[in-house]
Design goal:
With about 90 residues, this protein is mostly beta strands. The chain has a domain of about 60 residues. The chain has no helices and four strands.
């Protein structure tokens, strides 16, 4: 990848429905996201894991990468999620 790839950075437009994942009390911050794209997930959907300020790591799913829903699954006290895949297992 060269610098030419970034020549048009100034015409980038913000997605009008941002933020795509909203936070609110008591989870004021959603940070450090990592994801599995549909091409690599077992169910063909996006899977996003992100740290929430007070509670650990939350799991969100999406069909299009823009509209996300929480699965209500949480890893308590987790911080900065990382996804590791070995063969067909995460």
């Amino acid at each position: 990848m060269g610098i030419k790839k970034f020549e048009k950075w100034d015409i980038w437009a913000d997605y009008p429905a941002n933020p795509v994942i909203k936070s609110g009390p008591p989870e004021w911050v959603i940070a450090d996201p990592t994801f599995i794209p549909p091409s690599e997930s077992p169910d063909g959907r996006w899977h996003l894991f992100a740290h929430v300020m007070l509670f650990g790591i939350n799991h969100y799913i999406s069909r299009d990468g823009l509209k996300w829903i929480s699965t209500k699954q949480r890893i308590e006290s987790g911080l900065r999620p990382f996804i590791y895949k070995e063969e067909d297992e995460y």
